[in-house]
Amino acid sequence: MEIRYKSTRGDGTLISASQAVLQGLAPDGGLYVPDSIPALETPLEALAEMEYKQIAFLVMSKFLSDYTEEELRECVEKAYDSKFDTGLIAPVVKKGQAHYMELFHGATIAFKDMALSILPHLLTTAARKNQITDEIVILTATSGDTGKAALAGFADVPGTRIIVFYPKGGVSRIQELQMITQKGDNTFVAGVHGNFDDAQTGVKKMFGDQALKDELAGKGFRFSSANSINIGRLVPQVAYYVWAYSRLVKEGTIKAGEKINFVVPTGNFGNILAGYYAKLMGIPVNKLVCASNDNKVLYDFFKTGIYNRNREFILTSSPSMDILISSNLERLIYKVCGHSAEQNRQYMADLNQKGVYTLNINQIAGLTDFVPGYADEAACAEEIRTVYEECGYIIDPHTSVASAVYRNYRKETGDETPAVIVSTASPYKFSRSVMTAIDSKYSEMEDFALISELNKVSGVPVPAAIREIMDAAIRHDHVCEIDGMVQEVRGFLGV
């Protein structure tokens, strides 16, 4: 059965998967969703005998049904290769009372590699399938990790250019260095004076600016997105939830058919939404624990049914979660609204104009698969230290939010269902926060000295992604105001 895609704000018009991947964001400002969620069908016992690439192909072939088997296998092979430092691609390790799924073994040591290693191949294949000759301009806002992963994925890919905006001062120094040292003649990076929500809103406005798109089309350019608003980002993420379940079956922690929990550090809602899609496909998931940091807009939403971004924006040690407008939540809202584009449009208009919307009681009832939790900065640091002392295992600040939330969840609920904590970044990416959480004596050390200390205490080799930026030249030094983002795009494209 072919899965087709429609906009969460549209009239129900259906397009192919490859067309949805190409467009990124729908012309009406909505996000593309599948017209149905395909069933996995493969026996769970059989999944346990598969390698990561096999599961990735299986899952993506269900959603991306207009890609031929040959096309999709080629994309998978090119994506999950030696760029990853382990043949497992995403190891699932048992530490203490939980399993941690390590999604940071790719080129940029963050979970975004899992999808952004394959998106360039999905996108260029989609362009060929749809006879697109324009140069594709990837336009992306990042809260820290998407930017570098997208830059690495698209660097020097023929027929593409990539433009990344990040909040200046709102990412870790390592994250910033990874972006501003990026090579590739088709890459461009600019810091913006504002937070991630400001940058993301600026990017969305450009996607919705028809006059700008027409002007660029006249010059042979067309926009697409590498953010998780692109269904080509979301679908590959579903695969690693299926993979995690298969690992617990394979190691004997659970029997096929038994349920597990996933605990996901959450900002833009794409990662945990992929877990929800895996559940809808047939993976036995009990609860999806949505872990927030001090910017707990999602925690409050799942507690009350009220989404309210009118609050202080807090910079934390887990910057990829410093988000007040969780774009991917719109896909869930559309579903709990009974696939009513009209109702969803009204909620999104309320969010844009008033900063708040409120679900009705029937819609709130559709949120029960999710359990909210949050951990503040002190709890995050304490969890890093506790996990290290208990297990000798070092986690990054985003993973520690999820780990702390899970610790509290088990204490409050007594739920002993086996759990997988989604570990989204290498601790090397946040060495200052990690090392000072372990011992305050490290607070005065400079960043690269801290990396050496982290290597000593963890016994984990310094990743290539860190080694290569230690003496890399700065290649991108642009900084702009929010209202100057369009001009930066024009300047890079020469229009």
What brief labels describe this structure?
495 residues; 44% helix; six-stranded mixed β-sheet
Structural write-up:
The chain is an alpha/beta fold and 495 residues long. Helices cover 44% and strands 15% of the residues. The strands form four sheets. The chain has a six-stranded mixed sheet with strand order 3-4-14-9-10-13, sandwiched between helices. Strand 3 and strand 4 (98-102) form a beta hairpin. The chain is globular, with a radius of gyration of 21 Å. The mean pLDDT is 96.
Question: What is the strand and helix layout of this fold?
Answer:
Layout: E1 5-7, H1 17-23, E2 32-34, H2 44-47, H3 52-63, H4 69-79, E3 92-95, E4 98-102, H5 113-116, H6 119-129, E5 135-141, H7 145-154, E6 160-167, H8 173-180, E7 187-193, H9 196-208, H10 210-218, E8 221-224, H11 231-250, E9 260-265, H12 270-281, E10 285-292, H13 297-304, E11 306-308, H14 329-336, H15 341-353, E12 356-358, H16 361-364, E13 370-374, H17 377-391, H18 397-413, E14 419-423, H19 431-438, H20 447-458, H21 464-467, E15 478-481, H22 485-493
Parallel strand pairs: 4-14, 5-6, 5-8, 6-7, 7-15, 9-10, 9-14, 10-13
Antiparallel strand pairs: 1-2, 3-4, 11-12
Helix pairs in contact: 1-6, 3-4, 3-11, 4-6, 11-12, 17-18, 17-19, 19-20
